[in-house]
Design brief:
Elements (H helix, E strand, L loop, with lengths): L1 H25 L13 E2 L6 E2 L7 E5 H6 L5 H5 L5 E7 L2 E6 L17 E5 L2 E2 L14 E8 L13 E7 L8 E11 L4 E12 L4 E12 L4 E2 L3 E3 L6 E3 L11 E14 L3 E15 L12 E2 L6 E17 L2 E19 L1 H11 L18 E18 L6 E21 L15 E23 L4 E21 L27 E21 L2 E12 L15 E14 L4 E13 L2 E5 L5 E5 L2 E16 L2 E14 L7 E2 L2 E2 L20 E13 L2 E12 L8 H7 L5 E12 L2 E8 L7 E5 L4 H4 L4 E4 L4 E9 L1
Parallel strand pairs: 6-9, 13-18
Antiparallel strand pairs: 1-2, 3-8, 4-5, 6-7, 8-9, 10-11, 10-41, 11-12, 12-16, 14-15, 16-17, 17-19, 19-20, 20-21, 21-22, 22-23, 23-24, 24-25, 25-26, 26-27, 27-28, 28-31, 29-30, 31-32, 32-35, 33-34, 35-36, 36-37, 37-38, 38-41, 39-40
């Protein structure tokens, strides 16, 4: 912690120095009104001033996203203090809010996410997490903290992140482009090229086209390494895989949106969007080999391709606003992974290598690697109506349907494995997973608001839902290797194309509701307070292992009080919330025997927290933005892995995590501060900006033994700085991210169960210091 505190102090001193400098300059700033811009959000399914919405929301608008050089998921989450992330590489990230996380391992048969992600009106959260969407030409990113179960449903149990794109406009032509070159400490150079065009075709039709190409330089070195298996004596080296900076990323994508105005009351907006992200190498390092170094033996990386077609129809029927939003999302991820740690440690501890032979019975090099293919699809439809916003009695409500699928293919390969031990149809495959998961949910929802007086409003809402989740296919070994799993347990022929047979066909159906009640009081026109009770839910699912029953839906109850205030003629905004959340029968995923993920309904947990944000227009051209969160998340019952009669127990002799244990991943403290000053130099507009982000340490596992094996993640502080000039239509800017090259731990993990592989942990770091130069132009 000493290093973290020193970094925090350094950043604070630099920020203080910058504030002193710009304060002196501000004395001579040009005269004029000083006020903050109004922020419009659509968190309640209608456009409203952020300050009038009784929800804890943080919104990063277009200007903020550009000023802070936010290009992706990791970039914007660091400025959202109620949001935390667990990531292994680009495209493989799980998002959490307000400490509602049990340490899920993001397995394909694991629980659904607790945080929903939306692109405009359409949900884009796939079963294993959020899309890593490149951020460009985005109107704003909204983070809605706390259960959003009434309006957003399943997978918005703890909150919702919404990415709102800039829409086509018939008002006139506009266009722009941005070009960037950068270099990363300890690594390679990169670039970004982005552009957009908004073109009216007539006074009723307009099109908006957006495109981007990005190359991120690598910074992890795959260094020379070798290992010798104790059972067979085989030695493997990685001489043909050694490479510096081997974790580079190439991202390409685009968006095309059309606006068609039909008559005076209807707008139709079809949108097509897609992205391809080619990821090379590993994004973690092995601390035993040194900083930013790893010694792996097989190809690693992924090719993540997705496309979405969406349609939004907005209009009026009488005095009712009507909106239809539908989308189809398809995503395919081809991946390769090194799995030699599993091979080596199981051979060392259990002599597994003796069972892996060729057809003559000779032991072979048991090194494993994985070839995977994940195929996702998501279809969603929502139709809703709302009454005029100015009515004393207001209503918004509608119907929702969603069906998402996940085709799962994972091929665990030992190159010289005999055919007699291989899974049928897959030479040299020791283990095969080929399954299809389908998660369906449908809902009816509504919220009713009534102005009791001109200052006091009560809002009530409820969502009734049904969920039906299934998992079917094959997993396991061939019959020549095991008589207890895999092919030996098949009960029918192949029902999933390409699988040898079927040994899994399970499903679960559920229904329930999630209510919400909010009382809002307008103290003055620019200050309000609110109190909310709300619930969030997450559907249950099935366990692959036959001896473990399905897991049920879990529910989150939220008790919250908050405030939205503006001061000094809107020069200062101070918003915040305090809350207590009770998480009942929460789902926790963990690795069981043979490395199979098991999902259990644990006991209960409780989260207490405070979150706040301040925006201050100090003087003409000088602004300061700060936000922070304190999160205290603990178990309120023992967590025991054991089942009695198929039921999870909380009373056991040695709990895996006793009552009072801290929940993983989320730091207790997280806050950020950004200050920016803009001034004129002749015909040029100049600016300087500094940001500091701090978060305290956290564990990566709920269970005490496992967390002590894998280790604790230390807290850290990072700082970013920007300076630039602009004139008329162009802008030139230099920036540095992670200016002091602080090495943060975003995640710690082992390649297999911690009690076997935990002595060899990997650390996923933040990006080292990156320096760049950016030029942009608007027309």
């Amino acid at each position: 912690m000493k290093r973290s505190n020193t970094g925090l102090l350094t950043a604070a001193l630099m920020a203080s120095s910058m504030l002193t400098t710009v304060a002196a300059q501000a004395q001579t700033a040009p005269a004029g009104a000083v006020a903050l811009d109004e922020v419009v959000v659509t968190a309640q399914k209608r456009s409203e001033n952020l300050q009038d919405v009784p929800i804890s929301i943080q919104a990063l608008g277009t200007k903020t996203l550009e000023e802070r050089h936010i290009a992706g998921l990791n970039d914007y989450i660091k400025f959202l203090p109620s949001v935390s992330i667990q990531t292994t590489s680009p495209g493989f990230s799980s998002v959490f809010m307000r400490g509602i996380v049990s340490g899920d391992n993001a397995n394909h048969s694991g629980p659904l996410p607790t945080v929903g992600t939306y692109l405009d009106e359409q949900p884009i959260t796939t079963i294993q997490g959020a899309l890593d969407l490149h951020i460009y030409d985005i109107a704003r990113v909204e983070a809605l903290a706390g259960p959003q179960g009434t309006l957003y449903g399943a997978s918005s149990q703890a909150g919702t992140v919404r990415i709102i794109t800039n829409k086509p406009s018939t008002a006139g032509f506009s266009a722009g482009y941005d070009l960037e070159a950068n270099t990363i400490a300890h690594g390679d150079a990169g670039y970004v090229a982005e552009g957009f065009v908004n073109q009216p075709i007539s006074d009723k039709i307009a099109v908006r086209l957006v495109g981007w190409a990005e190359h991120d330089g690598g910074y992890i070195d795959n260094v020379a390494n070798s290992l010798t298996y104790p059972t067979s004596g085989a030695t493997r080296t990685n001489a043909n895989r050694v490479k510096d900076n081997y974790n580079d990323v190439d991202t390409y994508g685009g968006r095309a949106a059309l606006r068609v105005e039909v008559g005076d009351n209807w707008i139709i907006t079809p949108t097509i969007m897609g992205q391809q992200e080619k990821v090379h190498g590993l994004f973690s390092y092995d601390p035993s080999l040194g900083d930013l170094k790893v010694g792996h033996f097989y190809p690693e990386g992924s090719n993540d391709k997705w496309g979405q077609a969406a349609l939004t129809v907005e209009g009026k029927i009488s005095n009712l606003d009507v909106v239809y939003a539908g989308s189809y999302l398809k995503r395919t991820v081809d991946s390769q992974s090194d799995y030699t740690d599993y091979s080596f440690f199981y051979d060392t501890l259990t002599t597994y290598g003796a069972y892996w032979t060729d057809d003559a019975g000779n032991p072979v090099d048991p090194s494993q690697y994985i070839k995977g293919k994940d195929s996702y699809s998501k279809v969603s439809h929502e139709i809703r109506v709302s009454t005029p916003q100015e009515n004393r009695l207001r209503f918004v409500g509608g119907l929702f349907y969603q069906r998402q699928t996940h085709g799962i293919f994972q091929d665990y390969i030992i190159d010289a494995l005999g055919e007699s031990l291989s899974v049928p149809g897959y030479p040299h495959t020791i283990w095969l997973t080929q399954q299809k998961r389908v998660d369906r949910d449908q809902a009816a929802f509504g919220e009713l608001a009534y102005d009791i007086t001109d200052k006091l409003t009560i809002t009530g809402g409820i969502r009734f839902f049904k969920a039906h989740n299934t998992l079917k296919g094959f997993f396991g070994y061939g019959a020549g290797y095991s008589s207890n799993t895999g092919e030996a347990k098949c009960f029918t022929g192949p029902e999933i194309s390409g699988s040898p047979c079927t040994n899994l066909d399970k499903g679960i159906k559920e229904k329930g509701n999630s209510p919400k009640v909010t009382l809002t009081y307008k103290v003055t026109p620019d200050k309000l307070v609110y109190a909310t009770y709300s619930e969030g839910f997450r559907p249950g699912g099935i366990n692959r292992r036959g001896t473990i029953p399905p897991y049920d839906a879990d529910y989150l109850k939220n008790y919250e009080a908050g405030w939205k205030t503006s001061w000094a003629d809107n020069r200062l905004r101070w918003n915040g919330a305090v809350y207590l959340e009770k998480w009942q029968d929460f789902q926790v995923g963990l690795l069981g025997a043979n490395g199979l993920t098991e999902i259990h309904n644990a006991g209960s947990a409780e989260v207490k927290g405070v979150e706040t944000d301040i925006n201050w227009a100090i003087a003409q051209g000088w602004t300061l933005n700060a936000s922070g969160a304190y999160t205290s998340a603990h178990l309120t019952e023992n967590f025991c892995e054991e089942l009695v009669g198929g039921v999870q127990v909380t009373d056991c002799a040695t709990p895996d995590a006793p009552d009072g244990s801290v929940l993983p991943i989320t730091p207790k403290l997280k806050f950020n501060l950004t200050t920016r000053y803009e001034w004129n130099i002749g015909d040029l507009q100049a600016h300087v900006q500094g940001s500091a982000v701090y978060q305290s340490g956290s564990w990566t596992d709920l269970r005490i033994q496992e967390r002590e094996i894998i280790g604790r993640q230390n807290g850290y502080t990072t700082a970013d700085f920007t300076a630039g000039i602009a004139r008329d239509s162009w802008m030139l800017e230099a920036y540095v991210k992670n200016a002091f090259d602080k090495r943060a731990s975003l995640y710690r993990y082992a390649e297999c169960i911690e009690t076997v592989c935990g002595s060899h942990p990997y650390i996923v770091p933040n990006q080292p210091r990156i320096m760049g130069l950016k030029f942009g132009q608007r027309f």
